[in-house]
Write a structure and sequence with these properties.
Low-confidence stretches of chain A: 1-23
Strand order of the largest sheet of chain B: 1-2-3-4
Strand content of chain A: 15-25%
Largest sheet of chain A: 6 strands, mixed
Structural class of chain A: alpha/beta
Number of strands of chain B: 27
Structural class of chain B: mainly beta
Oligomer: heterodimer
Strand content of chain B: 35-45%
């Protein structure tokens, strides 16, 4: 009985999760970063930081949405750096309206932007957009400023 | 969310099929409901700052100024309203906060973008701010005035282009004659360029000036500078000849974000580049420069960069309106994220404050020069916070110096130097 209910539930939930993708971002933290690194072990992946106060970030988000549409498995993770709960709704609206709900998405919790920046990279001073390229060996390389979609694609999809 | 539902089903494993299906149906309904809620707003993840009060600790930013009579005024924004209080300069005892008596509207007040205040010799109050509009990154520059501190004139929109585009990062000065001068970052040139099918990188800086007459004011608009960074604060002050002087983060060539200054001295406008750190970034540094000018007309500048030729916080001075700069001096520890410097100069003393973060603690650092910027004494930590902080500002009046430092959701600190 348990197995049949479980399988029915999985079957039932799959289409629902497709119709209602989980739009809400999750809280970013040091353990989350470790989990992401483990999930992407032996793979190239990209961590992209953005803010509602950063006009160039929106160009980058649009490029990410296009890349995700063309390459559903492209390993990109978004992190919103606005550590202000009054901006939550606007943040989620952007993710939804820019067709980014399929991209793993996180946000800095209240008052934690400086501390979490330090966790990710003490040399990052908050300038945006900020990108962190992770190599297959798990090495991190930071880049400040707008990336073009082609740059991301070339690096991430290169074998 | 999924875990909760899975757990719920697990507890039904020994129940009858009908009961299981009922619970399953309820679970699915719950999931639909939760998914729908998540699409609207993830309220279950909202926490932290639930400030609903007008108290100053609820503000993201606090702007302070010293009136000619020596009173210290504070201005902040909470929930679409502006609030004011004041104290005698060195006192920490403030008057009851008063809401500025104008209709509620959105007010930009976080990071580099915040309301401004000036007080004249008659204790009249001048306020300006950026009002965000519905379209993303669009805003208008707003202004109001009160002769008696109670009644404010109808709010004016200062930018005169009528465009729904960016007008933000306003700075304001009021001189002894009552001339109000406002500068801000303005995206109208980008709009005009687009209609011509051309590209325009960054913003422009515009100046508006006017005088209160019959409790009203009209502003003209004049473009001062093209192609500036779009997200860094401006510095705005008068030099020793009472000439308006501004400093900003400029875009040189292929997105080199160095700094420039301009003195409006009636001669041909010529901006001077004063940093050459070669930070190439097509993005938002979110850090503008600081400028203070002493009685000898020496321009003291502090700035932040992450360029190939300079990473960190720097200080330098110029005795010829920025044409030539002293050798820049490094300020603070770049490895501890030294950032957001503010400088104040008077007589031969130069004070610089900035922020650092050591992984746990936000630190307010200070160092002082007694030889007009040639050399500085050893830096020291003045104050610390474990919670989020705003940028620090030195509020000077002659040889009196206070640091204003907002500990967000906690307290507004005033530290005497």
């Amino acid at each position: 009985m348990k197995n049949s209910i479980t399988s029915f539930l999985v079957t039932a939930l799959l289409p629902i999760s497709f119709v209602f993708p989980v739009a809400a971002s999750d809280v970013f933290s040091a353990p989350v970063l470790q989990q992401l690194q483990q999930q992407h072990e032996n793979k190239r992946w990209l961590l992209l930081m953005w803010s509602l106060d950063c006009p160039p970030c929106f160009k980058e988000l649009a490029a990410v949405a296009k890349l995700k549409s063309d390459n559903p498995d492209i390993p990109i993770v978004l992190v919103n750096t606005d550590d202000d709960s009054s901006m939550t709704q606007e943040r989620e609206q952007v993710i939804s309206s820019m067709d980014l709900t399929g991209v793993p998405s996180y946000y800095f919790p209240e008052q934690q932007s400086t501390a979490l920046r330090y966790v990710i990279d003490p040399k990052w001073h908050g300038e945006l957009p900020r990108s962190f390229f992770y190599t297959k060996a798990g090495q991190q390389k930071g880049h400040s400023g707008l990336l073009k979609g082609e740059q991301i694609k070339t690096w991430l999809l290169e074998k | 969310m999924n875990n909760n539902i899975t757990n719920g089903v697990n507890t039904t494993s020994t129940a009858s099929t009908s009961k299981a299906l009922l619970i399953l149906a309820l679970a699915l309904l719950s999931l639909l409901s939760l998914a729908s809620a998540a699409m609207k707003m993830p309220e279950h993840k909202v926490k932290g700052n639930n400030c609903t009060s007008a108290v100053i600790t609820c503000a993201n930013t606090v702007t302070t100024t010293v009136a000619p009579d020596g009173h210290l005024w504070r201005l902040w924004s909470v929930q679409n309203s502006l609030y004011l209080d004041k104290s005698s300069y060195m006192s920490k005892s403030f008057s009851l906060a008063k809401r500025v008596n104008i209709a509620a509207e959105k007010i930009s007040s976080r990071g580099e973008n915040r309301p401004k205040i000036a007080i004249d010799k008659h204790n009249a109050i001048y306020l300006s701010w950026a009002q965000p509009l519905e379209k993303r990154f669009s805003a208008v520059i707003r202004f109001t005035y009160s002769a008696d501190g109670e009644n404010f004139i109808p709010v004016k929109t200062v930018n005169n282009d009528g465009l729904v585009t960016g007008h933000s990062f306003n700075e304001m000065l009021v001189d002894d004659s009552g001339l109000v001068s406002l500068i801000w970052l303005d995206r109208r040139q980008a709009v005009y360029a687009k209609t011509r099918g051309e590209d325009y990188n960054g913003s422009a800086i515009y100046l508006a000036q006017g005088k209160i007459k019959n409790n009203d004011i009209n502003f003209d608009n004049k473009k001062l500078v093209d192609t500036t960074c779009v997200c860094c604060r401006l510095a705005f002050t008068q030099n020793s000849h009472s000439e308006l002087t501004l400093a900003w983060r400029h875009i040189f060539g292929d997105n080199i974000r160095d700094h420039a200054l301009l003195t409006l001295n009636g001669e041909q406008v010529k901006q001077q580049r004063f940093s050459r750190d070669m930070w190439q970034i097509n993005g938002c540094p979110h850090q503008g420069p600081s400028l203070s000018i002493d009685q000898t007309n020496r321009y003291h500048l502090a700035w932040f960069n992450q360029g190939e030729q300079g990473k960190g916080v720097f200080y330098g001075y110029s005795d010829d309106l920025g044409s030539q700069m002293s050798v820049k001096q490094s300020v603070g520890n770049n490895l501890n994220q030294a950032a957001h410097p503010d400088v104040y100069a008077f007589d031969n003393q130069v004070d610089i404050v900035w922020l650092e973060f050591d992984g746990q603690t936000h630190q307010l650092w200070h160092k002082v020069s007694q030889d007009n910027g040639k050399s500085f004494q050893k830096a020291q930590i003045l104050s610390e916070s474990l919670t989020k902080v705003d940028r620090p500002f030195i509020i000077g009046q002659g040889n009196k110096r206070l640091i204003s430092w907002q500990i967000i959701s906690n307290e507004h600190r005033l530290i005497q130097l």
